Sequence to fold (696 residues):
Amino acid sequence: MNRFVTFFFVFAMTIVNLSARNNPLIQPFNTPHFTAPFPVIENSHFLPAIQEAMEMGRSEIRAIVDNPEAPTFENTIEGLERSGRMLSRINGIFSNLRSAETNEELQQIAREASPLLTRYQNDISLNPDLFARIKAVYEKRESLSLNPEQRMLLENTYNQFVRRGANLNDAQKERFREISTELSLLSLKFGENVLRETNKFEKHITVKELLSGLPESLLEAASSKARAKGLEGWLFDITMPMYGPFMRYAENRELRREMFMANSSKGLKGDELDNQDNVKRIVELRLEMANLLGYNTYADYVLERSMASGTEGVFKLLGQLLEAATPVAMQEKVEVEAFARSLGFKESLMPWDWSYYSEKLKEQKYSLNDEMLKPYFELNRTIDGVFGLATSLFGITFRLNRDIPVYHEEVMPYEVYDEDGTFLSVLYADFHPRPGKQGGAWMSSFKSQWKENGVDSRPHITIVMNFTRPTDTKPSLLTFYEFRTFLHEFGHALHGMLSRTTYSNLSGTAVYRDFVELPSQIMENWSVEKEFLDKFAVHYETGEKIPENLVQRIKESENFNTGYATLRQLSFGYVDMAWHTLSQPYTGDVKSFEEEAWKETQLFPSVEGTAMSTQFSHLFAGGYAAGYYSYKWSEVLDADAFSLFRKNGLFDKATARSFRENILEKGGTEHPLELYKRYRGQEPSVDALLERSGLK
Fold:
């Protein structure tokens, strides 16, 4: 290289490094609690920051590998655990924005960054010199006098390297790299397709007679949506705040069918957004990866680290629940069909009829519907109620702090404090649907919790929902389902906010997949308790507390169509397990495969042009592959766990303290069954769930 070229190269690299160093994502965050400085972050900052952070991480790894001292827990395992924090910080911001406030530019950056990030992770996991140091520490673990958390970190680190290919030969490692890179891109593509299909559909209606049966709140929301786009009449989409009530209340059967088809056909139209080939390719690559690592199926690989301990445990649970729920669900269908006939319905009952006639039957049996309940769940008061539950149980308090930067003006940033005034966490709450936000609801973190040099570095947690928006005449009034969803995601948030671990890799929700839903699902149990509801659930216009007889009707209706609801969840679990217990690649029809997988759970005939797999983001764009059963597994845990509150008192401080100390604070520092038994005093039993659900 001549002097001119050398000078130019050095000059160019200097400019790149200066540009990276001036990047707000790389610089120290001069914000409250060192939160992300969203107002100064631009899309163009992400890729350079990710690249710079990866270089920092590589330097940290080199320092571990090149250390002339013998491998120890401190200089190797803890050193590795601390490495890559800058990348984790940037990626936490980037990945959360891609879910909650994305756009085409961010999606393109993700497509560019994904293979770089995958390569970075593989360079670490497949580094033979680094693994040799880890293995050296692991092999003398019995003589190291480690505490339980240190032992868990060591075992997790070793096992993660093995599970990411550290023991493969060079040719296998290269194939592992290729597989993981392709999988990361396919998962991105799958999720993008689902979001684009969801945003693509709109139903514009100008004849009000077609909308008979729809509540005024939904009509007002659809009218506002139409006006925002310069249209007359009403505009509907298939986000849940619109789709759910439309299917429950619209008298026009053809419109219900059209909405159902739009929602249920995502990724199945043979166009540029079709996900059928993506599903088959993702499953094929996962199987190949599992085989490379010595497992017969991808489910065997995943379930090695689960409370279920393998496919046998999963199918045992699914089978128990299927046996209990099927006769109940069949009787429920007979009842709904008979009720529909009594109203003059003469057709065969189809999936787009179920919510409508079920809702009418529920109203008749319990004098209860969503519109009766919504006035008592105004969003701001419900926020106070849900936060107040945490105060009653755990003594923590929440303070809205608008000085904390946010990524969208609707996001509400809170500081969370312990009973003694100690700062615990930042909590971002994002409640309403937007075109740049994925559907559903979730909890995540911008920053996890850890301890180092005597300092407890506290987490930054986010909960994201898609709740009913306020209208021109009404505040945001939540359905009861939305209220329970809030409690659910808030339970996940508590798991993150109350974490008290030493290592970030073990903090908060970094637990087995079939344990992570316990803190979320147990919170839902308070949703039907009058003692709790009286603290906040008042009519938004009159101030009247939610009436006792209304709460009683909610309780009585809790198990309405519980058999059907259970079969629906089981159907998803069976589809998940079918895809991920394949021992050979599947080249056939996606819909046919799905129908065979869940046939024992179906109460209705198959509908041509619909599928679940092609929009099943939990499996193909998320982390629930071979793990969707965990929702039902965790229901077993939460029903059993909540029975202790029923016995000792809904707000019993000792019970809450035990749940906090043994479950919420511990993260993944010990095996979840040991943590659970320490709280509950016994192993969980499915009986509590069957009894609560009315299936026993």
